[in-house]
Amino acid sequence: MSSSPIQPRNDRETTAPQRCGGPIDRRSFLQLGTLGLGGLSLADALRLRAMAGNDDRAAHDDTAVIFVWLPGGPPHLDMYDMKPEAPAEYRGAFTPIATRVPGIDVCELMPLHAACSDKYTVIRSIAHNFADHGGGHKRFMTARDPLEPTGFVNDLPAAPSFVAKCREGQRRGLPNYISFTDGGREGVDVFSFGAAYLGPSYVPFAIPGDPVQPSFSVPNIALDQALSDRLDDRLTPLNGFDQIRRSIDRSGTMEAVDEFQRRATEMLTSTATRDAFDLSRETDATKTRYGRHAWGYRLMLARRLVEAGCSFATVVVENPYQSGVEWLAVTALIEDLYARGLDRRVLLVVTGEFGRTPRVENVKGSQTGTVQPGRDHWPNSMSLIVSGGGLKMGQAVGSTTAKGEVPKDRPLTPNDLWATIYRHLGIDAERAFPDYRGRPMPILPYGKPIAELM
């Protein structure tokens, strides 16, 4: 992999373990399963971080981000930036409806968005130059122009990896960076989540699968073999979880292992970890509001995790299997954050890698093989929403031209969004880390927090 510098391109631009409270129903508790962050034990990951240096132990507040990633590119003209006055081939088949906020309309298929529009802000004028899914993922996630405009392997670290790096000194019993994906889609190169020169310790702690299913388990949380042998158990179902806690309390192993092993064990046996994954604590009404499907439960878990101390939770919402369920879950999360008083501490971002072509074309479907109307890739303009974070909600930032082709007012790039996210998290976006050649590279090469949100 080349290590040439990427030049900015302005394209528009700890607590001790406590005794377990007892077993709970396995359908409600998401079992803690087997090992490894990409093959590494949790303790291995902690060692790698310390060996890399710059273990940032500076105190940060308890702010967090839930990042809903919509790979594939949501069509802005059919969602948040509708153009009812444009020619039919641009405005498409859907009709806008009014929301609680005058001047902001959304698609008729999104009435729940209309009902809570005062709790989010639409950003309509972000754009970049990479129309391929791979290039678009890399451009958006790394805040740099990728060296290769296709493929999903990052040249530079994904932005959330910098969050994991800057907050690695925080110990609240949970990983600081977590991702939820479909089973088999948890690899860091599937959605350009790679950490590049920061190293493999800073990729997301992946939790794949459908949380609704009784068979669902949380992988990657287990003791490594050395500690497993000393404790004569593994962290698997809940009874194993309890046995490990009793073994630690009885044998004093916590005092015998090294610092990294202790930190790993604290995480694995903490009340925070147990409670965060315990969905029996959620009411039936809440589960129904989010939706009793994979995406709803993932978003509910993301909220529980940031509430418990995780800094950055990414939820991938990919390939709809039931029309509209993602938007039901998103609005449930927005309202839940406000109802729980988390709207200042937690920032929600819902976005894809680009928009879709303003003009609707009749083309052969890649899955169906039949000719059907649709919109192609379009990085030249896109819409996304943000909610909470103590920011100004109930507004639209920026605009596009009459046919939704390019930004008209307040042109922005993904860098400006990441600058806003870093500001919320108290991370200095100008801080530099050495790349593969030891050269200092800033977290962001350019970009400013979006002033209208402040």
Written description of the protein model:
The protein has 14 helices and 20 strands. The protein has helices at residues 42-51, 88-91, 111-115, 133-142, 159-166, 225-231, 238-251, 253-256, 259-269, 271-276, 284-290, 294-308, 325-339, 414-425; strands at 31-35, 64-69, 96-98, 105-107, 121-126, 177-181, 205-208, 217-220, 312-316, 346-351, 355-356, 361-364, 371-374, 377-378, 382-388, 395-397, 399-400, 407-409, 432-434, 440-442. The strands form seven sheets. It has an eight-stranded mixed β-sheet, with helices on both faces. Helix 1 (42-51) packs across helix 9 (259-269) and helix 12 runs parallel beside helix 13 (325-339). The longest helix has 15 residues, at 294-308. The radius of gyration is 22 Å and the shape is globular. Mean pLDDT is 81; it is low at 1-43, 53-60, 222-241 and 249-260.
Query: Roughly how much helix do the residues carry, as a percent range?
Result: 25-40%
Shape: globular
Query: Total strand count, please?
Result: 20
Strand content: 15-25%
Provide key terms for this protein:
eight-stranded mixed sheet, single chain, globular, 18% strand, two-stranded parallel sheet
